[in-house]
Amino acid sequence: MEIKILRVKRIRGKVEIPGDKSISHRAVILGGISEGITEVHNFLVSKDTLRTVRCMKALGVKVKTANSHLIIEGNGLRSLKESRNVLNAGNSGTTARLLLGLLAGQKFFSVITGDVSLRTRPMDRVILPLQEMGALLYGRANNKHLPIAVKGSTLHSINYTLKIASAQVKSSLLLAGLFADGITYIKELYPTRDHTIITPRF
Q1: pLDDT in tens, 172-201
Q2: Which CATH architecture has domain 21-187?
Q3: Which of 4, 22, 104, 179 has the fewest CB atoms within 10 Å, counting from its CB?
Q4: What are the angstrom distances between the C-alpha of 189 and each of 94, 135, 157, 196?
Q5: 87-88 and 69-75: which strand pairing?
Q6: How far apart (Å, rounded) are the C-alpha atoms in residues 135 and 165?
Q7: Residue 199: which residues within 8 A CB-CB, separation 6 or more?
């Protein structure tokens, strides 16, 4: 079989770039603790990002989904409510680690778990700096693995240098810093994703 391809002067069309998973996670979390309506376009629909959506819904955030379009109704920084059930992050490390920072400064009790794989992945890289901020976290294997219980507490600011290059750890500490007294400083030796730092434009 022979295929001939002829030269053309131009190609005209439209390419739609899929949404970014890291940004999608953060869009749901930040929208959930903002005041008013947040619309997210081109949300990456995946098992991991939908875990974050379900967890935020369980914490009292209203989220309407229509394919890759989300409407999130936030009621402010301290509007989250205690979940009636254990929060299940599935296989999403981003969901689990970011929620640890988000929930550490709340006034209620939470438990986060995940699937068999996620329950073997390290969480102490987030837990240790959060504990320096005053967070009360209790996990398996000497606070290294899920499930992890989070007893919301009063947090204080921290001046912390990231031990590893991790956008998840950085974002978790930034979220916790929103609920901490004083100014939290985070230094990274190697640049990581800055999705939680830059001004969101959803």
Answers
A1: 999 999 999 999 999 999 999 888 888 555
A2: Alpha-beta prism (3.65)
A3: 4
A4: 21, 24, 20, 17
A5: unpaired
A6: 22
A7: none
By CB atoms closer than 10 A (0-12, 13-18, 19+), residue 144 is middle
The phi and psi torsions of 29 (rounded to 5 degrees) equal: -65, -50
Q: What CA–CA distance (Å, rounded) separates 126 from 112? A: 14
- Alpha carbon distance 149, 137 (integer Å): 6
111-163 tens-digit pLDDT: 999 999 999 999 999 999 999 999 999 999 999 999 999 999 999 999 999 99
Q: For the chain, how many helices (H) and strands (E)?
A: 6, 11
- E-strand ranges in 33-115 read 35-40, 62-66, 69-75, 87-88, 109-113
Annotated domain spans of the chain = 21-187
Tell me which residue of 180, 168, 127 sits closest to 29, measured CA to CA.
168
pTM greater than 0.85: yes
In whole angstroms, give the CA distance from residue 31 to residue 86.
22
Task: Scan for tokens 């967070």, then name that residue.
Answer: 135
- Sheet of strand 87-88, all strands in order from the earlier edge strand to the far edge: 87-88, 109-113, 145-151, 136-139
